[in-house]
Amino acid sequence: MHGLAVRTTNADEADPTRARIPALWQCFRQSSVAAQLAGQPVYGVYTDYATDATGAYTLVVGGALPPDGPSVPELVSVLIPAGQYLVFTDSGDLPAAVLRAWRQVWAYFARADAPARAFSTDFEQYDPAVGGRTFRASRPPTEVVMTGLSALWLPILLSSVIVFVVSSAIHMASPWHKSDYPKVPNEDRVRDALRALAIPPGDYRIPRPSSREEMRSPEFAAKVKQGPVMVLTVMPNGPMAMGRSLVLWFLYAAVVGCFAGYVAGRALPAGAESFRVFRFVGVTAFIGYSAALWQMSIWYRRAWTTTLKATVDGLIYALLTAGAFVWLWPH
Hints:
The protein is α+β, with helices and mostly antiparallel strands and 331 residues long. The protein is 46% helix and 14% strand. The chain has a 6-stranded antiparallel beta sheet. Strands 7-8 form a two-stranded antiparallel sheet.
């Protein structure tokens, strides 16, 4: 890209009497460079670092100029190296949006688990606002890891524990799910008839055709009409192994927490607003706990009342998960 440049330091920019960047932007807006970039992305590229955040650096403001545009003697060329970049986003009027975005950068790299900053090339991407030459900080389309899962292990663990305890209370201490699976009529006769068949544990559909051709046959249609038509799950005989189920349920809650943390972490930095954390985590957790249940009623005729009650459970678990993440989100 090509643009106007200035050499400065953060210490100078903190002093209004020595700051050079505001004058650079003013010069850019009044130059033919801004006119040539009308409607195109504008970049602020930080390069040629002397040392680190305390040393001097060069800021180049410009963009990809058309080759047939008018020449500008003071133009500087700079190449943005290809590679993987962390992206921090904000929107609004300058310079407030840029300052907020850089605060996100500084907060991120101040964390103990943050990677070392390269101090090779950083860049800001802007989109021109409609109707003028003011620019707004854009939201680049690049997907970014903002907060790693390693920084979210505590809210993941805590949310799993909370969901485990609350779900146990819902199912064992309340009558909420008492009517989910009513007793089959003539239960003893049904049990005697099925026991004689010695059906192995597993999932079954009755009647079930052995091929597409049989499914279209008059004989199979007669079986379906005669009934019964059912989806059947046969469990092993003996007491239900609650320990195994409880362990798997806790692990499931942890997996949902990991997915919720992953999605929120890809979108939000450390120190993000509580509402944004709550929104990303809550929606993701709700999908994990509830959305997959609906297909059981859509395709397998599971009672919608049972599915809706389980969906309400999932909403409660999602809200609790979101609350745990808001409480323990890294700052």
